[in-house]
Specification:
Elements lengths: L2 H25 L8 H13 L3 E13 L5 E13 L3 E8 L3 E6 L3 E6 L4 E6 L4 H12 L13 H6 L4 E10 L2 E9 L3 E7 L7 E8 L7 E10 L17 E2 L24
Parallel strand pairs: 6-12
Antiparallel strand pairs: 1-2, 1-11, 2-3, 3-4, 4-5, 5-6, 7-8, 8-9, 9-10, 10-11
Length: 266
């Protein structure tokens, strides 16, 4: 080997050894005083305790083709909510531009590409709406569990192992990096420390799907400004058509185009 090659090899070996050492220390019981469950509980309690919340997000979902090629689909959006019963989420990607609006009495789903919308009477809370929508439509809503008032219980329901990995930086913000394992999915979350412990990144890995596809959600611009009822009023465009609930429009909740092999969902 040439001196340059030897140096590059040494750098790679050193970096790998350092990474393994850091992970080993982080994963060793008693190596850190930080309790991942306590950190997660602090985040959940903070979010649940806010009357109003808003944030912007970027999401990536992976799908595995029959040829075992991993394809990633990317979207961006924003969320507004006022507890206990108002929520608005807009997500735009390459294959779907969809908006969900809930005013505590009616849930509306609008697909901008299809220029169509569906509505259903659904009086209750945000928690009840999310649970009902997922159970009735079968649509995956990764990340919605972070918005539930009992998000800690939901997140920890099937956890077999929890670790505090250490620190990580997301969008320039140093965060606590936590990793959790479950029977079907593993997931990681990066939480901003301090008085406002908001989640900054959330990754779900599907272990039961060949290729272990992942769903990644990055959140930013968290605010607790108050919203008005008008922020949650659904006004369909003049050229939009109202369709029946069983028309297939609700498939637009998915972040991958129809016919694509399923990606990572929680």
């Amino acid at each position: 080997m040439t001196p340059g090659t030897n140096l590059r090899t040494l750098i790679r070996i050193s970096a790998t050894a350092a990474s393994i050492a850091v992970l080993s220390v982080a994963a060793t019981p008693g190596a850190r005083a930080d309790d991942p469950g306590k950190i997660l509980k602090g985040m959940a309690d903070y979010l649940a305790g806010q009357k109003s919340l808003s944030a912007k997000f970027d999401s990536d979902i992976e799908a595995i083709t029959p040829e075992l090629q991993k394809i990633q689909f990317t979207s961006s959006g924003e969320m507004k909510m006022t507890r206990p019963d108002k929520l608005r989420i807009r997500r735009t990607g390459g294959y779907a531009d969809v908006e969900l609006v809930y005013d505590g009495k009616t849930v509306s789903l609008y697909g901008n590409n299809a220029k169509s919308y569906v509505q259903a009477d659904l009086a209750g809370t945000i928690d009840q709406m999310i649970n009902t929508l997922q159970s009735r439509s079968g649509a995956g809503m990764p990340g919605a569990d972070l918005l539930l008032s009992n998000s800690y219980d939901e997140l920890m329901a099937n956890v077999l192992e929890a670790k505090h990995i250490g620190q990580g930086v997301v969008d320039g913000v140093e965060c606590e990096h936590l990793a959790f394992r479950g029977p079907d999915t593993d997931w990681q979350i990066w939480i901003e420390p301090g008085a406002k412990p908001v989640p900054r990144k959330y990754v779900i890995t599907s272990k039961t799907v060949t290729g272990a596809p992942q769903y990644t959600l990055k959140m930013k611009d968290w605010k607790t400004d108050a919203h008005t009822d008008g922020d949650f009023a659904f006004k369909p465009p003049a050229d939009a058509t109202k369709v029946a609930l069983d028309s297939g429009v609700m498939i637009e909740l998915d972040e991958i185009p129809p016919g694509t092999p399923a990606g990572a969902k929680k």
